[in-house]
Amino acid sequence: MNQAPGDILDCIVEVLDDEAALLLLSWTCVQWRTRITCRQSLWRRRFEQQFPQWDEKERMWLCQYKRANQTTTASAVSCARASQSGRHDAHVNWFDAYCSRRAIEYRWRHGQYVVHRPAIVTGASSRGIRLQSIPLVPLYRSSQSVLVATQWLTESQQPPIWRLERPCWGGVKTERTHIMMAWWSDEYLIVFILDKPYLRYILYIWRFTALHEVPRVVDISNRYIIDAKIYGHWFVGQYGETTQKVAFAYHLSENAWYHSGLGSKFKDCTLHITTDGMRIIRAEYDWAPLGGVLVTLMQQQVVYSSEASSPWRLAGTVSMSSGNPIKSLHIDDSRLILWAEYIANPTPDTLPTLVLFELTDGATDAPLKEAWARAVHIRSIQPIVSRNLVLIEQYHDRTTALLSLDDGAQIHCVHLDCWRVSGLYPPQAGWAKMAKDVVWPGSDQDTLVDASTITKRVSSPTAILYSQGDIITVFDYSNCAHRPSGDASCF
Length: 491
Known about the structure:
4-stranded antiparallel sheet
């Protein structure tokens, strides 16, 4: 095989649709290793197909991978740049990225972690390369109680270390503050504070790379934020005013606010970021304890470059089961779900408890399209965007069910809590083959964690942080020394 022409080897690599077999081949000889690892277009295509970057947790993992490898990958992909005609991200070796992404899910699933207890709290520092940050923000306490566990890469030859850091508050009298809520992404940390003496609400905003710097302070007076989320550089949500609720979008890097009143009949809404603004879809209905309700969907387009918002337009109607509040859930910028808790077992005559709507591309004033509707027993739901699924938690024994976002059909696969915690799922082909009785040996079962004393659990795609009083424990799945990313058993 060492004497085989290069074009034949390339053809084999291109048509072999088995990543584990390709990885095993890459270990047989230098020639195979070079041919396989340098097929950067192939590995990038497989990576993006199996781990789509429109999923927030997948994006977070890839950003962390890039930071961890930004000082070492330039030479590793030099052969790829020479042999490929297309230009790729010079900071990513897509073969290694693919193997590493498969390996991290394997480590979660098999309970392979390293335990850290960063006991020393230091002032936030910018030294080294920040790999990830996990904030610990206890609600209804003073702002001085905010801590951030950060994983740092200090030297290229040393393993990453964890530090506990206190963000800089810039002279704020923290004893008179009260934490109401907090939000974070891979880049930003936002803490929503009540200034008790003046009864006013304030947002404090940091980049995780600059926790040692004075935060941006946004005084929002008496506007209490009801619900919000970070999408990239946008902080979007709803706040309450005296007579109505208001949808807002705040650009975190440009310090620009955009608002739109939701009206007095508003019940719930979703916000969808567009190329030039924000699309707001609100749900209206008259509540009834039994039977059904007619839900009316209204939509409005807010264009950031315009002083005036467009008028509210009818987007659609749907009849749903009543008895519990109907909630809206943002899936992505082209889909949303309406749903309501439903305790009883549905019958053929039960009205839908779960409806998926699609937004029309390029037509912000066009009606929404009802893609499918189902009457299901439902307690809570969680979208799994990377696998085009929605996870339904039911009341009875908190069992779960998976529905396809394409048509609402039930998918019969095992579901492990590690995937819900990390947000990182296995490729669909491998997932479908897993035994239905597999159990996750999670960190909750570790003797270092006493479930009765846990006050808070926060996770990232590669780690879990537990707070037990003054003890902070990090279970790190990102860099287990006993399993290299090139091990085919991870597949």
